[in-house]
Amino acid sequence: MDALEASRRESDAHNVDHVCLRVQNYDEASILAHRATHGVRIGEVGSRYGAEGEGPSIYLFDPQGNMIELKGPATI
């Protein structure tokens, strides 16, 4: 991408789909309660396949709209 292309991008465009953070002591209920207390927008909650295998996962959004995945340990 050259400088001309970069200047034409939308100001709200994102460079990555999401960032995944592996959470060792993953407690879905606590995570959901904490995000509700602080008004964090939530995406999908479920089980997803990742680098370590299938496990619990929650998608959240930061104030700029970037998607962050909190991923628990593999269960399978």
Describe the structure using short key phrases.
76 residues, alpha+beta, 2,3-Dihydroxybiphenyl 1,2-Dioxygenase, domain 1, 37% strand, flat
Low-confidence spans: none
- Mean pLDDT rating: 88
Query: Globular, elongated, flat, extended or rod-shaped: what is the shape?
Result: flat
CATH architecture: Roll
Query: Looking across the biggest beta sheet, what order are the strands in?
Result: 1-4-3-2
Radius of gyration: 15 Å
What share of the residues does DSSP label as strand, in percent? 35-45%
The CA-CA distance between the termini, in Å, is: 40 Å
- The first-level CATH class is given as Alpha Beta
Would you identify the CATH H-level superfamily?
2,3-Dihydroxybiphenyl 1,2-Dioxygenase, domain 1
Following the backbone from N to C, one meets helices and strands in this order, namely: HEHEEE
Count up the domains. Answer: 1
Q: Which fold name corresponds to the CATH topology?
A: 2,3-Dihydroxybiphenyl 1,2-Dioxygenase, domain 1
How many DSSP helices?
A: 2
Task: Report the major sheet.
Answer: 4 strands, mixed
Oligomer: single chain
Number of strands: 4
As a percent range, the share of helical residues equals 10-25%
Helix/strand structural class = alpha+beta
Please give a structural write-up.
The chain is of the alpha+beta class. It has one domain: 2,3-Dihydroxybiphenyl 1,2-Dioxygenase, domain 1 (Roll), CATH 3.10.180.10. The protein has 2 helices and 4 strands; from the N terminus they run αβαβββ. It has helices at residues 3-8, 28-37, and strands spanning 19-22, 41-50, 53-61, 67-71. A 4-stranded mixed β-sheet has the order 1-4-3-2, with helices on one face. β2 (41-50) and β3 form a beta hairpin. The longest helix has 10 residues, at 28-37. The mean pLDDT is 88.
